[in-house]
């Protein structure tokens, strides 16, 4: 039956002419049946706990109220409320009302189409500081606080194992933003259900914690591989491609070979199944393990290079663009291990780029040949 015909027949059946009244009547029926079913503890939507179902339906009831009162401010709010209402209607299929979801959808959009056309679009979301103290913080500090609030666990590893994969490798790189030396990537395969207390993104850990956790990872891991790409190659193929190359080669070194990769916000040119995770080193224990292993390895190399180039202070900043490092670059110029394609290094005047001082000798005019 076409939608208008269904709506008309439904309205005639209940004896009302207002679509809004129809929504209200349906809402009453739904809420009564939902309360009844949850009070006696019977069925609920597959895969949902009772608490989650109750929460979803409370939100749906609130959305119904907002729709009826017309208190929604923009299109985004309307569609969100409409989706919640549809979820509530879907749940009622277990009560012998299979068409209820369709009736609600028809009623909502028929009654709200005119209002929807004149609704403004939702304003652009801007993350505002929660306090005056946060207003003075830099964007990097706010991001670090956000990363610290994330929970690093094995949820992504469990999801991969649920698909039939057994050897899951976490892959990450360090040194991508450094001005000096190599970029290092590590790949780590951990046993199933591995838990390492305190393991998270290496940038959020102190040196002693990183080194302690790296030893634990080495003890527990099924396989670990590390690969580095030198500064000359970075200058030749760019840092993005060099990072991917280091990750790919680290994966190829793993024995046994993995059948699934968890990667921090990248995809590699590798036939293995992959999952790219934004902020993966703060969410996946495997990626965090790779991050810690790679960071410890690279930091040790930077301390060794500090003995060779002590004037640059590599032991403290590890080659990154700090004021101390930039001042040393300006004073001494770059070393052969600096990345010449990076702007702070490229803008530094090299000693051999300075034209030699030419002594100007005044020759008397009468000494010149006629």
Architecture blueprint of SSEs:
Layout: H1 3-14, H2 19-39, H3 50-69, H4 75-91, H5 100-118, H6 132-135, H7 139-148, H8 155-162, E1 168-174, E2 183-189, H9 207-220, E3 223-229, H10 231-237, H11 239-253, E4 260-264, E5 273-277, H12 285-308, H13 314-317, H14 323-332, H15 343-346
Parallel strand pairs: 1-4, 4-5
Antiparallel strand pairs: 1-2, 2-3
Helix pairs in contact: 2-3, 2-5, 3-4, 4-5, 9-12, 10-11
Rg, Å, rounded: 32 Å
Helix percent band: 40-55%
Oligomer: single chain
* CATH second-level architecture of the largest domain: 2-Layer Sandwich
Total E-strand runs: 5
Low-pLDDT windows of residues: 10-20, 31-52, 92-103, 122-127
The residue-averaged pLDDT reads 75
Instruction: Tell me the span between the first and last alpha carbons.
Output: 112 Å
Give a description of the structure.
By secondary structure, the chain is of the alpha/beta class. It folds into 3 domains: 3-118, no CATH class; 147-298, Nucleotidyltransferase, domain 5 (2-Layer Sandwich), CATH 3.30.420; 307-353. The protein contains 15 helices and 5 strands. Strands 3-2-1-4-5 form a 5-stranded mixed β-sheet, with helices on both faces. β1 and β2 form a beta hairpin. The protein is globular.
């Amino acid at each position: 039956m076409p939608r208008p015909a269904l709506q008309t027949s439904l309205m005639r059946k209940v004896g009302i002419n207002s679509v809004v009244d129809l929504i209200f009547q349906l809402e009453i029926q739904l809420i009564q049946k939902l309360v009844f079913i949850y009070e006696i503890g019977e069925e609920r939507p597959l895969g949902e706990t009772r608490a989650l179902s109750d929460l979803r339906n409370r939100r749906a009831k609130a959305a119904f109220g907002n729709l009826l009162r017309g208190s929604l401010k923009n299109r985004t709010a309307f569609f969100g409320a409409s989706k919640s209402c549809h979820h509530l209607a879907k749940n009622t299929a277990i009560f012998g009302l299979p068409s209820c979801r369709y009736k609600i959808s028809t009623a909502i959009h028929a009654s709200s189409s005119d209002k929807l056309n004149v609704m403004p679009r939702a304003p652009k979301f801007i993350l505002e500081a929660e306090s005056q103290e946060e207003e003075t913080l830099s964007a990097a500090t706010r991001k670090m606080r956000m990363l610290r609030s994330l929970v690093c666990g094995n949820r992504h590893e469990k999801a991969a194992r649920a698909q039939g994969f057994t050897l899951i490798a976490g892959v990450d790189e360090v040194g991508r933003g450094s001005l000096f030396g190599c970029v290092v990537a590590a790949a780590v395969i951990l046993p199933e259900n591995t838990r390492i207390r305190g393991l998270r993104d290496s940038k959020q850990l102190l040196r002693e914690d990183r080194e302690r956790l790296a030893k634990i990872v080495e003890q527990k891991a099924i396989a670990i591989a590390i690969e580095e790409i030198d500064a000359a190659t970075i200058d030749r193929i760019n840092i993005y491609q060099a990072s991917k190359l280091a990750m790919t080669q680290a994966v190829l070194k793993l024995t046994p070979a993995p059948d699934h990769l968890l990667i921090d916000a990248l995809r590699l040119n590798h036939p293995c199944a992959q999952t790219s995770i934004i902020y993966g080193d703060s969410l996946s224990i495997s990626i965090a393990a790779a991050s810690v292993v790679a960071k410890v390895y690279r930091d040790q190399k930077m301390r060794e290079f500090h003995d060779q180039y002590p004037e640059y202070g590599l032991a403290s900043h590890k080659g990154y663009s700090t004021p101390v490092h930039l001042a040393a670059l300006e004073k001494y110029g770059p070393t052969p291990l600096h990345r010449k394609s990076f702007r702070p290094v490229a803008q530094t005047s090299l000693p051999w780029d300075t034209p030699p001082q030419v002594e100007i000798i005044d020759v008397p005019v009468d000494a010149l040949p006629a």
